[in-house]
Amino acid sequence: MAELPTHFYLASASPRRAELMQRMGLRFEIRPTHVEEDDSGSQGPEVMVLENAKLKASTLSELEPEALVLGSDTTVAWDAHVLSKPVDLADARRMLQMLSGRTHTVYTAVSLYWQAGGLAHTFVERSDVRFQQLDDARIDQYFARVNPLDKAGAYGIQEGRELIIEHVEGSVENVMGLPIQALEQTLRELGFDFWN
Predict the structure, then answer these.
(1) pTM of the complete model beyond 0.90
(2) CA 171: distance to chain centroid?
(3) Would you please indicate which residues are annotated as catalytic (active-site) residues?
(4) Residues 21-61: pLDDT tens digits?
């Protein structure tokens, strides 16, 4: 087996994922990949995030075969509907109205690639989120505090959660975009030490 990698790259431009990895105390560099992601959800939310995470990680891993690369993707799903990022505020409002008073699932896939070591390891974490009943005034209040346009499902859990979220079952960080508990366990099981 090759010597353990000395570099750890996050193949994502997401400030939330970088923030969560910093919170974990990991040493890493941000190296976004510009790949064509599939947001259709035609094969279901779990397969969609798995394939997108693998695409990000494998693309960068080909360029940096000696490094450990992390690719990740998150989506919000209710019933059979995959809720990607809204196209405009009207679309964002429609999404929040759809989720109002209901429980939906957030899926995040994490893909770890290390080409020189022959590693391609991917897993999916899911969290269930229950929304409060949201009327138009509450949605307006939320939009005044949070930009919904850059978030799957038109919401984030970092700020304003008390306005819309009743309960989260599972990892809250998973809803933010990276299940740090499962990631830490996986990195330790695989024998990687990138902690400061």
Answers:
(1) yes
(2) 12
(3) 73
(4) 999 999 999 999 999 999 899 999 999 999 999 999 999 99
